[in-house]
Amino acid sequence: QVQLVESGGGLVQAGGSLRLSCAASGRTFSSYAMGWFRQAPGKEREFVAAITWTIGNKYYADSVKGRFTISRDNAKNMVYLKMNSLKPEDTAVYYCAARPYSGDYYRSDFYDSWGQGTQVTVSS
Description:
Layout: E1 2-7, E2 10-13, E3 18-26, E4 33-39, E5 46-52, E6 58-60, E7 68-73, E8 78-83, E9 92-99, E10 113-114, E11 118-123
Parallel strand pairs: 2-11
Antiparallel strand pairs: 1-3, 3-8, 4-5, 4-9, 5-6, 7-8, 9-10, 9-11
């Protein structure tokens, strides 16, 4: 198992920016890729972005393309999500997740380790 801890959430005005961080520990060598998901009140958890540990291939949901950037620091076992041009509809709890294999990065059931989540609130 991989232990994940998110940080960096908060309250920001529409149009503002935030950077989320995810610290990974434990069996990190067993993880092929990392992802960010979010869940708004009354809605299902949805895919935001994913990145592979070694090559660094990146994948984004259409709703965040051009606004959000996922990155990783292999030496520090850290994954980041830089969020620009935030909108009120981006308000959600954001979760970091790890998965042991490739493919279908948008599927939450393919991830086997999850963080506790960090709240992002975007005011209009």
